[in-house]
User: Fold this.
Amino acid sequence: MLLINESFFFALFEYSFLRYALLTGVIMGFVTPIIGSFVVIRRLSFIADTLSHFSLAGLSIGLFLINIMGFTFISDPLYLAMIFSVIGALFIEILRGYYQNYKEISMPIVMSLGTALSALFISLSGGFNSSIYNYLFGSILTVGNEYLIVIAITTAIVLGLLFIFYKEMVIISFDETYAKLLGIKIARFQFVSTIVLAVIVSLSIATVGVLLVSSLMIIPVAAAMKVGKSFKNTIIIAIMFSETSIIGGLWLSYELDIASGATIVLINLLILVLVGLFRRFYVRKRLKQTQLDIQRK
Amino acid sequence: MRVSVSNLTFGYDYRTVLKDISFVLKSGDFLAVIGNNGSGKSTLIKCILGINKITPNRILLDDVDVVDYKNYKNIGYVPQKFDDFNYEFPITVNEILQVSKYTDFTEDQKLELLDKVGILELQNENINNLSGGQLQRVFIARSLMNNPKLLILDEPTVGVDRENVEGFYKTINELNKEGITIMLITHNIHESKANFTHILSLHNGEASFREISRGDE
Assistant:
């Protein structure tokens, strides 16, 4: 394969789809670990998975509407994925309010609804086909100019919101009781952040696919939190890991002609393992000593 | 801050936890809240903090009904242990204090505060590396970030070693001398070296409130 393909970097100049793919990847690689950090701290990792499965319902309904019903004004089923992701988020919030003491119940309920609807509409659309495969495992090379603009604008809005409400988000994530005490409207923040999460999840589908979205969000953060020195430092490291996996994954998948979403996630996992080993054999001893030094202060 | 509790009754579902509690604290008072597990100590604190929803006119903070109270930045709160805090994720002492700042508390004031509670050297450390006692001081510093008039401490010395406990009470007594009203929940009043002015003893939700002269306990 290596001999057949021209170099990835050379091809970047030649093919616009590759440039779109790379830009999409770089943007998502930047924003997902930031959102992922808050998801990890709040122990909501499973929510990303639930929302991505619910988005699949939107995708399959979209494909059904476009391919079977002939609603060609829907230019891309990914928009329906976004709408469904937000609807899924609303369902989760309603159910979390309904089962106050068993909040996690909301996830399997919403996930099963999403998966059932997906299965139903996939079968109605004539069964499993390559589009569904692309959405399940990622199809970053098919991202067009229009969708790239949607991703860029949405990301800018999300980052803007985060910049404005950074303090509140950090306090709520780390210590909800204290946030309540400061008079921060937690329910309102939670609602908005779940919607934001839903939007980011649906945008990530293009990069790595429904089944791998949560890994894009969680794994770089999981690796970074083992070596980060501060909150900001951890997020920066997570972004670096995430970008490495996305750019590296795109390059490798192009050179070897293998699935890009899977390559990105596998590189992410490789980074996680390397960080684990680095910590096990290099950092831990020093960390113990540092901890002792600090605690002596 | 003046804290006035009158005929407060509170319960969860069908279980009454606090029965007809009344007491008044003036600015600069130092209250010990004692009682066994389940006697309603933490429930009372949650009522004062506005976390538990109560009927109007039961608790007044500086003559404002807690139901309408908005100025919670005037109240510092140090929770029992740090179970509510997600402290496995890296965050430094400074970062915690930065996001807890909601008044025009200056950088100099912050450094002075860190020095006072004895964690000036630790400001750039990840809280994961701190000992229980140091972590406790971080939370005290956080509770003092917005110059509170009332400080509420919920069993703050559980799991903290003896040496640090002494240092802790020294700090608390100094803060009280500056005029901050303090409510301290404690299991064992004899263990604490605090200069209490009042004791509220809770038993099965009923309270007895008495004044003590400084140094009695």
In short: The longest strand of chain B covers residues 15-25.
